[in-house]
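Wait, can you check?
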Amino acid sequence: MRLEGSALVELLARPASVAVVGASADPQRLSGRPLDYLKRLGYAGRLYAVNARADLPEVTTVRTLLDLEPGSVDVALVALPAQGVVAALRQAEEIGVKAAVVIASGFEDRDGPARRDLDRLAATSTLRIIGPNCVGTVGVAASAYLTFSSVLLQDLPRPGRVGLVTQSGALGNSLLQSLIRRHVGLNQWFSTGDETGTGAIELATGLLELQDVDAVGMFLEGVTDRQWLGRLESALRSTGKPLFVLKAAHSESGRMAAAGHTGRVVGSADASEAILAHAGVRQVASLAELADALVVAGVNPGLPRTERPSVSLVSVSGAAGVIGADLVAQDPRLRMAEVAGENLTLDARLHPQNPLDVPFINETGVFTDAVTTMSTSRSVDIVVGVETSLAHDREELVAKVVAAPPAAPVVLTSLSEDDTMPAHLTEALRGAGIAYLPTVDRAVRAIALCAAESTEPESGHSTSADLRGIEWVADCLPDDLPWVRWRLLADEPAPEPPYVVKAAGRTILHRTELGAVRVVRTADEAAEAVDAVLAVCRQYGDAVMVQDFAPDGFEVMVSVADDPEFGPVAFIRPGGTLAELMSGQAVIWSGWPERRRLEVLRGSRIGELLESYRGGKRYDVEELSRVVSQALTAVAGDLEFLELNPVIVHEAGVSLVDAAGRPRPNSPEGAASA
């Protein structure tokens, strides 16, 4: 029977019997190292050495695999030169070996006779082949070290619930070393090499399907087993476990390098990123980011099942807290925990807020108490603590948090990457379920990578406390702005079509999502359209208005915000249904004179599109600039925020169709609403 997916993974994790083909008695040789590991590091299954010329000490030795009883070997590790590999695999197939790990190189030329013979065997046999040209596989729980990895000469991985699949053996060694040094327990590692019979996607799928694996990391150059992508997606969706992937070979140079050392065909980076993202893979940007994500997921396996976890930052440095808060706020996978007003027991000098600045030198207990206290907040899913040896006694800090583990997960970081925690302390933290990463930015990125994909629907409307609609905005702006005429249906009967019937924007700002806007082109459509919009408006307490059609033109949206650093700033972006997908915004600052604003607008991507782009129409950029300036003036007054959307720019003139705005809290309108 041909084993696949999780069945293959389980076999390689705990083989009952292993034969090392081409084994050497010299542990310094690559062909001797796997046998030495299996004998010396705790493998308890039946072990055979296959050596054509000599008996090896302390192990049953045979001349060929055919000298062993059929069914007596689960896995064969083939450590022969390339020219002897296929013959050995045929012998393995004959005695019923279920899987073979081939560490030999020499198969990179996919059109060469050695590779063609190996591919033919892999395609027609029940024998599953890992490799060739791989470092091997590691099953930690059973000490199934089917590998020549030099990392095991230095240290051994601890048993754990993280899986690893790497197409590169050298990079896999690096990741293995990183996990060992950062005290993350490993379940299995697969180095897949040239992947003649078994691909990385199948093995990752198998790992995800195991009960004793919580997260998987992968280094991927190219996909060789795309037929497994559907099952991988199913495993990711059904288990909620994360698969972190570092995808290499994005550039032409990278693709050529991948083809050179493995013979692997690598396609479009855009295609691979899109397809893997659709499958639910969590793609990382660097080797460090991959290791960080595995650290956090390995220590906090529940985090990858938390949608948009709320983060609390406790920092010895206010600046580090600001950096962390910015990173959290900018990442849609995370949110800042709202702790203000909670009855949390903190040092008398501190008050519940996020981020929480604990700037006291030589008061380690205050810092650790703050971390522990913030972890008890009902609104906090995870705490990021930023410490430093300049202010804290690290031995005391670790002893305190280990003695009284926080209620919520904690990721502890240092203020500087050049002042990190000693290894014995990070190991103690890991034992208490506290992950350690060197800096706050790396911690936030790793937490975001672990966060479950959000299924929360976006709100379809805003309340009057958030924004106010076109009626209120128009009263705040100059009378000469070119609005497309509108009137409330309660004040005037509907005109002759065509027109638009929509919510007035008193409580509903995002009309399309709620069905609160309809186009009426004929008299027959009028009654149904008005009734439909009226029903939605009654539900949300809004009024119904009708508005004339705007003439055709180039649609943009203008957003103006009162920036706390620079004052009023306008952002002009493409409008319509593609507003959130198209880039190329113009940024106009109120501190510039009128002429400078117009120059910046013309020099932007929006300006290029408006002014005869590729021989097209020339739209009225000057009038758009005038409208933007009036919006900036309004936000310098009683408005805190203003959005004009859509703004239709014509060859001559501009039409304003809709708007939303927010009063300043200290303005008469803002004070009244408060």
